[in-house]
């Protein structure tokens, strides 16, 4: 069952990426990002309102709000870099670079939180590194130089910021 759900998740994420790419064609990045965020929030508005009314959530102090603002800024920077890179690069390059985020989170968890990887996780990290190297070689055939292309840098920065955001989530929890 989990394998079927994993394939379904991958397919839906693929559709999501394709539709984001289509929405960026002939449009400015920031308005598309704003509208995407707005409509995503509107979808969850009923759940937010019900949870606000149905539960008694304890009030939090200013320090907690500051931590959440920092998390929001990290997430927003990831989205901005990602949208700009996605607009100017083919999805065949953007997708695999984004797929390295879990590996970055694993490495970050080792460095920041002292977590240890098991054999399967190490194999996954090595496969991701080899895949990234092979991707850079195949990208040259498409005319994309990974070393001198600012949009590649934007996608890499988006992936790094996304990984930092994930690690910061663990810290906040």
Molecular structure report:
This protein has 173 residues and is mainly alpha-helical. It has helices spanning 2-24, 29-54, 62-88, 91-98, 101-113, 119-141, 150-172. It is built from 7 helices and no strands.
Cα-atom radius of gyration: 18 Å
Mean pLDDT: 87
The helix-and-strand class reads mainly alpha
Number of helices: 7
Amount of helix: over 70%
State which percent range the strand residues make up: under 5%
Number of strands: 0
* First-last Cα distance: 29 Å
Give the quaternary arrangement of the chains.
single chain
The succession of helices and strands, N to C, reads: HHHHHHH
How is the biggest beta sheet arranged?
Answer: none
Secondary structure: elements and pairs:
Layout: H1 2-24, H2 29-54, H3 62-88, H4 91-98, H5 101-113, H6 119-141, H7 150-172
Summarize the structure.
The protein has 173 residues and is mainly alpha-helical.
Features of the shown structure:
173 residues, 7 helices, single chain, mainly alpha
